[in-house]
Amino acid sequence: MHTGGEGELAAWEIVHNADDIRRWLSVVLELAEPADLTATAADLPALRKLRAAITHAAYGLAAGDPVRPADIAVINAAAAEPPLIPALSPDGALTFVAPTARAALSTLARDAIDLFSGPLANRIRVCAADNCGLLFVDASRPGRRRWCSMERCGNLAKVRKYRDS
């Protein structure tokens, strides 16, 4: 759900209108064409509300805090909507039957519920880089991953440490 947000995250906002919703959800859902997904400007408040709830919940879990009741209510309400209906395309790829933004948000909310209530909930981390702060799920065997990306944040941190020594 890293698409921007309110406050200091507003500078990173990438979802401003229905076309942006279609583009972003098409990437998330791996749709070949953004036009395949139906979205309107009326979907924007629901997306932002769900994004805020999932973000608050994930940062809270990363800090060892329980998910706030208000965030639980938003996530559960979104998950209660009908989800995307998966289908098999003629070329064997995953597709969806008449995908809508609301159904995609329901599917994302259900994925969040699976993550937040499952065995990886205690493996949600915030990148340790001084200038990052992205969230990630540490699926490493020992559970000691520190950076969202070793190629970017991890490498830069190690170079800084080496230069400082």
UniProtKB/TrEMBL annotation:
Pfam families: ABATE, zf-CGNR. Residues 123-163 form the Zinc finger CGNR domain. The lineage of its organism: Bacteria, Bacillati, Actinomycetota, Actinomycetes, Mycobacteriales. This is Zinc finger CGNR domain-containing protein. It comes from the Bacteria.
